[in-house]
Design goal:
The chain is α/β, with parallel strands linked by helices. It is built from 19 helices and 25 strands. The chain folds into three domains: about 300 residues, Rossmann fold, CATH 3.40.50; about 110 residues, Domain 2, N(10)-formyltetrahydrofolate synthetase; about 80 residues, Formyltetrahydrofolate synthetase, domain 3. A hairpin with a 4-residue loop joins strand 12 and strand 13. The longest helix has 21 residues. Its EC number is 6.3.4.3. One of its GO terms (biological process) is tetrahydrofolate interconversion.
Amino acid sequence: MKSDVEISQETVMEPITKIAGKLGISEDQIEQYGHYKAKVNFDPTTEKPNGKLILVTSINPTAAGEGKTTVTVGLGDALNELHKKVVLALREPSLGPVMGMKGGATGGGYAQVVPMDDINLHFTGDFDALTEANNTLAALIDNHIQHGNSLNIDPRQITWKRVMDVNDRELRQVVVGLGGRTSGVPRQDGFDITVASELMAILCLATSLQDLKKRIGKMLIGYTYDRKPVLVSDLHVEGALTLLLKDAIKPNLVQTIEHTPAFIHGGPFANIAHGCNSILATQAALHFGDYAITEAGFGSDLGAEKFMDIVTPRLNQSPDCVVVVATVRALKLNGGADKKTLNEENLAALKAGVVNLKRHVEGMQRYGKPVVVAINKFASDTDDELTYLQNYVTNDLQVTGTIINSWAEGGKGAIELAKEVVSACDHPSEFHSLYSNEDSLTDKIKKIVTQIYGGNDIELSNKAKNALKRIEKMGYGNLPVCMAKTQYSFTDDAKQLGAPEDFNIHVSDLQLKLGAGFIVALTGKILTMPGLPTHPAALDMDIDEQGRITGLF
């Protein structure tokens, strides 16, 4: 079988002007980046009835793979096959995982967005712009302290970190300002990965350039010696930072292998941020399509929960249908099977592992929206395994379960799923929020833990308790919560697979993100700067004299 990059390179793409034309986007509304990529100048205030919104999520990710983006792209191509006007809205890949181990974010096989090599690398430069804006702010903060510190900023209480779009564990904790009086004030600092920056969250939650500037001005960068908050607006640099992001805020238009239009924009991780593409991209998909398909990062316990509780109120539209992706292989792993034997039939492990899918489906049903399960078929799945899983979904979970094979067949491999999704979208439903703004901060976290994760309670460290007191004293306890948690488990322990019971979630710290408008609850041993694995994907990549890329998945 050909690799993803080989399939992508053999695709005959349509000019991006033609893709835009299918949506009614004129040439003066796009800024081309070559022949097959473009920025779109979109005004979300334009009046037009919005299309149906489909949210794709999954069970907890495993080393066995779930193929959530492959399903998302395949579903879009299948709706296109059914002559529906459909537009995708997806996240941009981060170079850290691309060069590390997670891989890209463009789908796989014959269900991909293209050109996948460009998208997985620098694309249109959005992440580069975010990195520069983030680090410009860091430099301006230190420069302010160097030249008199009129704001009385305490260098020990600076909360703003520098970032890089690289998995680099060496930079988690650093000391800056060494080299004498002319080189700044020595202090402990650290780096996050770019996608963990609050600027990334703000870019994805902003509804206009002016909203972006307003949110940047609200960002908390640290505290004074007398513990008063210092905001970006106190430095008067929100205009300069917005200037650096003036192009990055515009959604990027590309296409799938089957020429379905796709907006790819923004990319916060769901385990350390809110995990959804930009509101502007989703609004554009809703505006230009009768069906908009978007995807939330990692499993439903992370990305989908955050889409429902953080994005939906800002989007002013809830999903008409939720698709939960599952695979036989991943469920067998959740049921105790050895990763090395996943190609072998193991009904016992599958029966033990389906509890993971059950909890994800039930968690999404709490929001009141129809749920459809997409069983993503792998070549090693046996008929007995697939039959058991489909019967379990239909009879035990009492939701529609459809086997799809978009990786090998593209849109044709997801036709039945597309039909079920259309039917589900036509079902009248009412959205139910998990919590209200009036709930206390601890109650919000508890509701997520008990109703989505299936846990018992939360435990706050002394550091988290102190942060809670400070946040409530400042009057920000009404903000929503963004959980920072391992993606591999419902618990804060990545090794606890399946559907663990009788557990508590340990909150190590609470971080105030005023620009994004949420509070990050750090749990377990979550890291905002990942490291590279023993065998990084970068070791297998190359480029020849003709510029042809190999090894990029």
